[in-house]
Design brief:
This protein is an alpha/beta fold. It has a single domain, classed as Rossmann fold. It has an eight-stranded mixed sheet with strand order 3-2-1-4-5-6-7-8, sandwiched between helices. Helix 1 links the parallel strand 1 and strand 2. Helix 3 packs parallel to helix 4 and helix 4 packs across helix 10. The chain is globular.
Amino acid sequence: MARWTPEQMPSPEGLRVVITGSNTGIGYEAARLFTQVGADVTLACRDMGKAEAAIQRIRTFTQNGSLEARHLDLADLDSVTAFSDAFRNAHDRLDRLILNAGLMVPPLGRTVQGFEQQFGVNHLGHFALTCHLHPLLVSTKGARVTSITSVAGDVGRMWWNDPNWESMRYVRWQAYGQSKLANQLFIRGLAARAPYDTTLAHPGWSRTRLQRHSIGATLGNVVLRPFNMSAERGAWPTLRAAMELDVAPGAYFGAKGLTQLAGPPKLRRHARRARNDEDVERLWALSEDLTGQRLVLD
């Protein structure tokens, strides 16, 4: 598949799909494309007004599938618990859990529980969400968890002595790189523990509001347009990672181009630091300690 497109993916008709942060950007485009081909999609979003508006926009494209919006604030572990409890009460299956929501280089901020907000939202909130929904995933034949990382994770590092930037001077790009490397380490840890499929995707450089905290990246959306992608094209790695058949545990899909910033999705190798098994286990233990959540294994 030299030039993969969504038309090549297996039909997701009838699958129950949860996509975090899906009221805008590549999460919205993934929700729209899944719905167009018959999936039943839950938009898990912090702002319910924007989530409902996103559903209305999707309905101007298609009447296929089903859509629902549910409140989820990944910056608050109590909200993660409430979302998970409500979802399990409403649904008896979960075929695809897509961990898409994220922050990119905001000023220093804290989650409700006091975590640095990029690490807290991009990784810890999703870690807790997966732990809560793990029993439903286990009981759904063919279920899969897909996490959205970034090429920034390929060059990121874990600041083990101060992952929440409580004593170090905050460097927003380094904090972002840590959170995106954590996505990769998390999926490798989940793949070693879970009986369902696990995959990764990165959207290259996609033109979305994710870059709103970076003047340089926002300007680059315009000036470097030939070298980046629309939000719709940026969602293609998500679709392939979520739907590709016969994937290896932790399979990683990203933009095909030389710079990995644009192009159709292809299989990629995990970043060197993400291949460190000791760091995989170290992050898993840290995540359990910080969130108080455990993956319940048989």
